[in-house]
Write a structure and sequence with these properties.
heterodimer; A: 196 residues; mainly alpha; 0% strand; B: 72 residues; 2 domains; 2 helices; elongated
Chain lengths: 196, 72
């Protein structure tokens, strides 16, 4: 039990920093560059991604192992996962819009963007393809989503500071953002030697 | 349960998910935005490089930006 708990924590750290979803695996780059220009927007988007990835994992894991695999239909996983993610985003979006104006104000406009965020599909697909058990799948979901949140907020902070400095016209905006993302990815590469 | 039963269950899950998606999509569209949130929009300045044509911000960007440029 203790060894499993340690493995759970190490998996979270691995997916949070060493095998980061955005800067190492390059999932979710579109929203990372598109929304990561203001800290508040980035934080809201990151929170929405955390919520959807964790709940998508909770729902997709039993469907894959207790329905698709016994039915001999594991190749249908991508179709089912996309449907689950789309439903989850729509249902959550509806309830937030109807019952929680404050949450809608901060998260609402970013929820539809998550349907097209490949980080969500990437996590649930990796869980089933790698044969992770439920605990490690949840560690993957938590580590990946919090890693996304962390990196998009750090990226937004750096970009806000960069906006206040003068840069050559050709480098302003997206080119500088991509160079920043590249430098952040290189910084994270330094952690690969940890061997966690 | 036999394999046939699991296949029927899998098909039922897919159908249920489709129904949930359609119903929640219609409800989401019909629900008015909360007071003060009617004109919320994302920062669309970065949308020109994205080609997710199904995204609402893509449509919003391409409806508004060309008109503004035409006026200039």
């Amino acid at each position: 039990m203790y060894a499993y708990f340690v493995s759970f924590l190490l998996s979270i750290v691995t997916y949070l920093l060493i095998d980061n979803v955005v800067l190492t695996r390059f999932y979710g780059i579109c929203s990372f560059v598109g929304v990561g220009n203001k800290v508040k927007s980035a934080f809201s988007m990151g929170l929405a991604v955390v919520f959807v990835i964790v709940f998508a994992t909770l729902i997709c894991f039993p469907i894959y192992y207790y329905v698709l695999v016994p039915a001999g239909l594991p190749f249908m996983d991508t179709v089912v996962y996309i449907l689950v993610i789309a439903c989850l985003v729509q249902v959550v979006g509806f309830f937030i819009k109807k019952y929680s104006p404050a949450l809608y104000k901060s998260l609402g406009i970013y929820l539809p963007l998550i349907t097209t965020n490949c980080a969500v599909l990437g996590v649930v697909t990796e869980n089933s393809n790698s044969g992770f058990d439920f605990g490690i799948s949840m560690a993957n979901a938590l580590g990946t989503s919090i890693g996304y949140l962390l990196m998009i907020v750090i990226f937004a902070c750096i970009r806000m500071r960069l906006d206040s400095y003068s840069a050559p016209r050709a480098m302003k905006g997206v080119p500088l953002a991509l160079i920043t993302a590249g430098l952040m990815a290189m910084a994270l590469m330094g952690l690969t030697g940890l061997g966690v | 349960m036999s394999q046939g039963g699991y296949i029927i269950l899998a098909i039922a899950i897919i159908v249920v998910l489709l129904v949930i998606f359609v119903v929640s999509f219609v409800l989401y569209r019909r629900t008015p935005a909360p007071k003060g949130c009617e004109h919320l929009h994302a920062e669309t300045e970065e949308c020109k490089g994205c080609h997710q044509v199904g995204c609402q911000f893509y449509a919003e960007y391409h409806e508004t930006k060309p008109k503004e440029e035409d006026k200039k």
